[in-house]
## 1
Amino acid sequence: MADELLLEKENNSDKNNVSILIIDDDENITRTFARILQKNGYQTDIAQTAAEAIQKTASQSYDVALVDVCLPDMNGMDLLFKIGNNGGKMIKIIITGFASMSNNGAHPDAYLLKPIKPQELLSIISQKTKVR
């Protein structure tokens, strides 16, 4: 039992070093994702427009960007080009309500289809951050 608790603490301390930018214009979604991720040991930040995301990624490094496809000022796939690699290490995960879509030449690391289950969100972030 003590070993399991230690392992859980070690895993959470690794997550404390993972910063995630949640980019979505739906305040309920950003707040929910942030709460889920923070409770699981991740650092989070929120952008509700593409312009805000571009500004934040220009001044700060993030390990993961969760990007909604439908933003008020830009398509999320187009935003992938604007935010670049953020130091060459940012994992980009597209959030979409569409089962199929054109990627416009952008290459996200993963797609999450709405509605997103909390365990699915945590699983994909855990998988992708272990790879880097």
## 2
Amino acid sequence: MQPTELPRNRSQESQVSQPPHQTSEQTQSDSLVRQRRAMVEEQLLRRGITDQRVLQAMLSVPRERFVPDELVAVAYHDAAQVIGCDQTISQPFTVAFMMAAARLTGVEKVLEIGTGSGYGAAVLSRLADRVYTVERIEPLAEAARQRLSRLGYRNVEVVSGDGTAGLAEYAPWDAIVVTAAAHELPLAYKQQLACGGRIVIPVDDPSGAQTMYRYTRDGDTFQIDDLGKFAFVPLIGEYSSLPDRR
């Protein structure tokens, strides 16, 4: 089997190959492009993320624009970063893993729960046709809305509200990606998922850890895949503890 190659992005490569005597701003920009490419190569490809569309999406989204100014220098580190309001932007591997697990082809309507700074929605926008993202903390929602608009992510809509209720007015969803850990899978997600759709969500387990699951709908039943252990902030909302009625 041939090794997976990193997708080529000529515009980024041309940015790196600049003539000497650059301004400090140009130098910083080139450094961030190199860091982004290294992040994809070292944190994603080498750890088993092989979906070419996901790799290209992660390569195309400037993560440094989604962290506080004081954290730009560490935007591409293999770690979550604090974005304010006791929330975080997930580490790059976790974002890419969830996107790959959602199995998107580019035609889907996707619901994201937990907008945060908008980084996950930006990546999803490169993988799906339309993205709706729900954030319960209004200042984060408004900041993400402005940021995504400013950066040109036109197929993303940010909604302020309780994400545990889903977003019934735009359902059914081809995929639901949940970026916070639930006690149990909220019933609304199952009800709003299209046949064949996928829910990717971390769920608390009795040991105190969190397990990532993928629920795939087949009529009235769901195939459940255990995707491994992860760590997330808790999912908070009115329906975060409804029984998981399988």
## 3
Amino acid sequence: MVKIVIAGHYGFPKGMKKTGEFISGLKHELIACTLHSDEQPEDYKEKLQSVIQSEKDADQIIIFCDLIGGTPFKAAMQLAQKTDKQIKIVGGANLPSLLTGIMIKDNMNLEDIISEVIKEGKNGIKAF
């Protein structure tokens, strides 16, 4: 089973979770893990690790991070190397990438999901 975690700063994770669930119609499918301004990087890493470990029925996890190189991204990268779960990280996530992940996560293998997520994330950015 593939689970989706949204990791990021301040309101990003909860906003993406609520919006993703609203548009997709799937409730309680996503997990938000928010970095607050008063949290230290190690504290956030422990919180994200707890989220990952709590998903006992998920052997594959996609972590959508708001910013490549930010604390949530760094924590996810470190944790991905220290777990028996298969974890993929999407840095610089946007709503099109998240919605794609939500809609196809149960119908494709993890590598193909990531490929589609990245493609749709890039296609979701246009100038007009």
## 4
Amino acid sequence: MSNINNGYTGGQMFMAFLGGALAGAAVAALTTPKSGPETRHMLVDYAGQGKEMASRLPEASRLASKAAKETFSETMESGS
């Protein structure tokens, strides 16, 4: 079986994706034809949204892990 993830965990891949998305959003924000104050306000808003998402990530990860464990346990118990 081939290793599709090249040894990276799902969390590492997600963080790389998230980092790339944030970098892309920052580049897009900085290259738009807006005034300085408008651009700064937009970047502050993006930063606030990113901070909010990052604060919810541990809880979302915990809930996803719990759901996966429960599904695995149910599958093992049913023998399917």
